[in-house]
Specification:
The complex is a heterodimer of chains A (about 110) and B (about 220).
Chain A lengths: L2 H13 L2 H4 L1 H12 E5 H8 L3 H13 L3 E8 L2 E8 L1 H20 L3
Antiparallel strand pairs in A: 1-3, 2-3
Chain B lengths: L2 H14 L6 H16 L9 H30 L2 E3 L1 H29 L2 H14 L1 H27 L4 H19 L3 H24 L11
Helix pairs in contact in B: 2-3, 2-7, 2-8, 4-6, 5-6, 6-7, 7-8
The chains are: A alpha+beta (about 110), B mainly alpha (about 220).
Chain lengths: ~110, ~220
């Protein structure tokens, strides 16, 4: 690989959606990608994250428009239902494609 | 391993986690245990009271299962809706079950029409007796109704323990009809319920009820 090609590849790594690239958020996005929707408790149990930690990541994803948060009450208990928005689904697909391309092209 | 496969595994793991409360095992085991009463043939034949009790028993078992899912599992585990792939599988399951039921109905009609006698012949009837052959054929048909249907359900609902449960159920139906002794469904039902109870206890320990009324955000 010549130097300009190499630096181009390196630049592509930097271009990766960093919001999704963070491991906990990547896990949230991947899980919501394969589900229609899930509530906060389900996500927390599946990923083994603490309440606060998951909440922080979800807030960031919501701010980016990647997830849709629907709040309601079940009796007296608050319930938060989450799903990927079309933009979030597209962003995850783009992230997956770009990571696959980059990693597949690396020499073994 | 490709990314696609990883996502499939992720979805499957999430889906199968919904079975870890053991309530399906307890529910289906409960149905098998109830067969001890509902499939038992009283000497005087069935009365409307027998039928009423059968309906009541299955309603209670179904109600307990529903209540367990609603008030024990969901508050601990959370709620989830699975994607289109699962809905497709459910549709295929409905079609396959429809075909199985149609085949079974055809089989019953053929049996009633004397097909069984012409296939097995008088030699077999002479060997085990006409009454026993009748009971054997009903037991075989009964277990063939239950076994394959539940195997198909277990496959399409991605429920590995369902294969074991379907075999136990088919065996329970077969023995109960053939021998008319309640001990068989009681024992086989217990063999289904016990692993379910163990899973249920593990589930309660693993997923304690979230305390307080903490906001999700």
């Amino acid at each position: 690989m010549t130097e300009p090609e190499s630096s181009q590849s390196a630049a592509k790594f930097i271009e990766v959606d960093r919001l999704i690239h963070e491991p906990a958020r990547l896990a949230v996005m991947a899980l919501l990608y394969v589900l229609e929707s899930a509530d906060f408790t389900f996500l927390m149990n599946q990923m083994g994250l603490s309440w606060g930690n998951l909440s922080t990541h979800l807030t960031r994803l919501e701010e980016a428009g990647y997830i849709e948060v629907e709040k309601s009450f079940k009796g007296k208990r608050p319930n938060t239902h989450l799903r990927l928005t079309p933009a979030g689904r597209q962003a995850f697909q783009d992230y997956r494609d770009s990571m696959t391309r980059m990693l597949d092209n690396l020499p073994r | 391993m490709s990314n696609t496969l990883d996502l499939k595994q992720l979805e499957r793991k999430a889906f199968r986690s919904t079975y870890q409360d053991g309530l399906w095992d307890i529910y289906l085991g409960g149905i098998v245990v109830a067969m001890a009463i509902t499939l038992y043939r009283p000497a005087g034949g069935y009365t409307p009271n027998n039928i009423l009790i059968m309906l009541l028993i299955y309603t209670i078992i179904g109600g307990l299962f529903w209540a367990g899912k609603k008030f024990i599992t969901v508050p601990r585990m959370g709620q989830v809706r699975f994607g289109p792939a699962r809905k497709r599988r459910a549709k295929i399951l409905a079609i396959v079950l429809g075909i199985i039921v149609a085949l079974q109905a055809l089989f019953v009609l053929l049996t009633v029409g004397g097909w069984l006698r012409s296939v097995f012949g008088d030699n077999l009837i002479g060997f085990i007796g006409e009454e026993n052959l009748g009971r054997l054929s009903v037991a075989a048909v009964g277990s063939l109704f239950v076994g394959p249907s539940f195997l198909v359900i277990a496959y399409f609902t991605d429920f590995p323990r369902g294969y074991y449960i379907s075999l136990m159920m088919a065996l329970a139906v077969f023995l109960m009809i053939l021998i008319n002794n309640p001990i068989y469904p009681l024992v086989l039902g217990a063999l289904i319920i016990l692993p379910g109870v163990v899973l249920f206890i593990k589930f309660l320990k693993k997923y304690p009820l979230p305390r307080g009324e903490r906001s999700n955000d």
